Amino acid sequence: MDSPLLGPNHHVSFNKFNRKFFLCFLLLFVAVTTIVGLGVRGNISFWILKGTERYNEGKTANQGHVIESELGVVAADDARCSAVGVSMLRLGGHAVDAAVAAALCAGVVFQASSGIGGGSFMVVKSSSSSKAQAFDMRETAPLAASQNMYQTDPEAKFLGALSVGVPGELAGLHAAWLKHGRLPWKTLFQPAIGLAKNGFTVSPTLEEYLANDENKIMSDPGLRNIYAPNGTLLKGGEVCSNVELGKSLEILAEEGPQAFYNGTIGEKLVKDVTEVGGILTVEDLRNYKVEITDAMTVNVMGYTIHGMPPPSSGTLALSLVLNILDSYESPDSVKGNLGIHRLIEALKHTFAIRMNLGDPDFENISGTSSEMLSRSFAQTIQRQILDNTTFPPEYYMDRWSQLRDHGTSHLCVVDADRNAVSLTTSVNWHFGAGIRSTSTGIVVNNEMDDFSTPTDISPDKLPPAPTNFIEPNKRPLSSMTPIIITKVLLAACLLRIWHFRGDFQI
Ligand SMILES: *[C@@H]1O[C@H](CO)[C@@H](O)[C@H](O)[C@H]1NC(C)=O
Ligand SMILES: *[C@@H]1O[C@H](CO)[C@@H](O)[C@H](O)[C@H]1NC(C)=O
Ligand SMILES: *[C@@H]1O[C@H](CO)[C@@H](O)[C@H](O)[C@H]1NC(C)=O
Ligand SMILES: *[C@@H]1O[C@H](CO)[C@@H](O)[C@H](O)[C@H]1NC(C)=O
After folding, report:
1. 354-395: per-residue pLDDT in tens?
2. Which residues bind L-glutamate (predicted)?
3. Of the residues 187, 350, 408, 453, which is catalytic?
4. Among 9, 220, 257, 486, which has the minimal tally of Cβ within 10 Å of its Cβ?
């Protein structure tokens, strides 16, 4: 990309993207979509933000790939949350202010996939620095968790109170705001509080998710109360309110995250989770630490990708896949059906290798990390990919059984100063553990399911991955891949694919 995406004198049209960039775009599209196991379905549409005009002009993808603005761009799964982010930029907010407000909004209107009962990865690129920062606010295993805790009841790993990891979302959003925010903390909460207390219209996607998870909703009083208030599931277009969540957000807006991590909201949440059999404690919340590091930076295909270090496998996997494909002589060699074949084969190898990763605070994964970043390793794999055939699973050197993780929400922000944020937030499966705390209105995650367990063995499966076994305070391996791509200094392209049906927003 020769010129930045933003700025009055730098109109970037699709035709000016050079072919390599477009190739990279396509590959990332496929790679990221596949890695998180999500699909973009329905009508693909772009939302265009231009100066002080409306944030949503509803342009469709084939009408243009241009996002241009002097104010900034916010893209969330739900257009209402993009608008919330934009409102923060209009108040003079930093990209991080917009991201926090939009994430809080998503945690209300799209509680199926995100919220303060979950966790996130956030990459922040300041325009003044060539480096990006990574905020790891992923859930951790509670202190009372242990490797074999699901031995007698494997379902408890993904459904119910034992599947709950210590939520990190709010602590992480606050940490990012402390470093970069310009607006008052409580300003960021006002739109989300309004939506939760006054009610919001159920989107077609939420309607679909509710219907898919009817049993989960109906068997939990907290979820049932708000999503089936009259005994039947809400439909798209009907209004849903989450008054308890609104009240919790009001307190957190006033008192800050300590009300959650060392105060009344946390105590109430722990009580609700304990009552249905959980092991989460107030001490777990007090112990929670956001990890702030330099983003992992990799240079591939002439671009710089700033992403999350482990326990996210995302940046490493993306780098390996792109380096494998870049090992072919020309960009044309990854085009068409043959290109798709090569991509799929590259992904199979990458998925096999990524299961050797885990939380670097607990496991020595430096060998695997450097392999996944190495160009010569990528070339070795590329030579193992044949154009005329595919192979039985053993060929891809799978040692450990795969995790099948899914279910996230994503948002990107670039502000007028070209500060950029890429944030992927999750409660893991839709509606997380299937528990909405009745006193706080918070849906809790089932992120413990992203760990591997030694007892999860069967004759038709590979053994579970030891680097991803449960330990108190450990974070489970993740495939979430928030990234910021830069070419020239100050040019930022944010890219991530997500799954709000019918809306693909950049
Ligand atoms: C539920 O019932 C209440 C009171 O009977 C009514 O006001 C409301 O419109 C109903 N909501 C839905 C979604 O049917
Ligand atoms: C928790 O709050 C108490 C006061 O209620 C305070 O003394 C203590 O330092 C706090 N702990 C942490 C970890 O913030
Ligand atoms: C971690 O593993 C690498 C090889 O994979 C080894 O060279 C290194 O010494 C190990 N580090 C520690 C702290 O054990
Ligand atoms: C596939 O291609 C390889 C060389 O690239 C060749 O050795 C092999 O015979 C081919 N296999 C088939 C089934 O055509």
Report:
1. 999 999 999 999 999 999 999 999 999 999 999 999 999 889
2. 138, 426-428, 450, 478-479
3. 408
4. 9
